[in-house]
Amino acid sequence: MLDLADVLAAQNTIKGQADHTPLVPSPFLSDKFGTDILLKLENMQPIGAFKLRGAINAVMNLPEGTKGVTCCSTGNHGRGVAFAAKLRGLRAVICMSELVPKAKVEGIQQLGGEVWVKGQSQDEAMAESRRLCAEEGLVEISPFDDPFVIAGQGTIGLEILSARPDLETLLVPLSGGGLAAGIALAAKAIKPDIQLIGISMDRGAAMAASIEAGHPVDVVEVPSLADSLGGGIGMDNKFSFALCRDLLDQTILVTEEEIYRAMQCLYYEDRIVAEGACVVGIAAMLAGKFKPNGPLATIITGRNLDMDLFTQIITGQNVQLGDYVIEGAKYVRP
Ligand SMILES: *Cc1c(COP(=O)(O)O)cnc(C)c1O
Q1: Which DSSP state fits 44?
Q2: N or C end of the chain, less CB within 10 A?
Q3: Worst-scoring range by mean pLDDT, 24-28, 82-86, 126-130, 136-140?
Q4: pTM higher than 0.90 for the full model?
Q5: DSSP-derived 3-state class of residue 282
Q6: What is the atom index within ligand 1 of the atom nearest the CA of 302?
Q7: What is the pLDDT of residue 321?
Q8: CB 244 within 8 A of CB 174
Q9: CATH topology of domain 4-48+150-326
């Protein structure tokens, strides 16, 4: 099983490539809640998201003679894998369905990744990725259920606690759970009484539902402002589920409206452009679902969002998500 030593090894492996993002106070939130509220700015990573940490650690630990890597993430993990493979001079093939927007395809290509567009669904893209593993000897890198990926994401916990050992709580965005599992593993080994709280959107929170059920469950995936938190945890989950179940003190769910307001707040008060997935911790505090009672940090996980959508949000317009409409409103200081 994974432990602190794996996270420390990962810290060494990613050094100089994906480490030491700033940990900055939010003066507005700190003042509002009467305690230090810190933001770990993973949106400042070279690919615009923390996924680089896990991807570099996984790719660097592949055996000599590996032919290349593959995955079928359309988002930040795909970027991370392409970037990491380039560092090691390996081929990276990112498989996507025909439904994926062109901007995402170009984003991966700019990082030196090959994009294979195949089929009409994520499942077909996944099948293609599996075929490449079987027939061309590529290695698939999971976005969250891989010990090296989890240990890589855990380096965020080491950096936060070495800067601020007095923190009492970490609010961590939660999807497949690689991020939360890694951070919890590191933070609880260093400071056993620290509180680790996983936060997801209330529509399609696969890890929260799985912890509740006691085993991995499938949830219906619907569009969300926190699109980087969508998707399942895998019915055959081997690592991230057990770690999240055992190490998280609590999970909290937030609504699309709460995410919308928290994105406005982070933008207007701290001038930070961030994905919906990053602000779930702030959303939980502003909605009164989590009451800070001591210094805490939350992870601003990434900045790769559609700028037209972002403009709609900060100007207070309605946002259409599939058949769901978020009623817009201009920002009012909470
Ligand atoms: C992947 C991702 C997350 C969630 O990480 P998991 O390890 O899947 O829980 C959160 N925010 C952003 C921006 C991400 O890309």
Answers
A1: G
A2: N
A3: 126-130
A4: yes
A5: helix
A6: 13
A7: 93
A8: yes
A9: Rossmann fold (3.40.50)
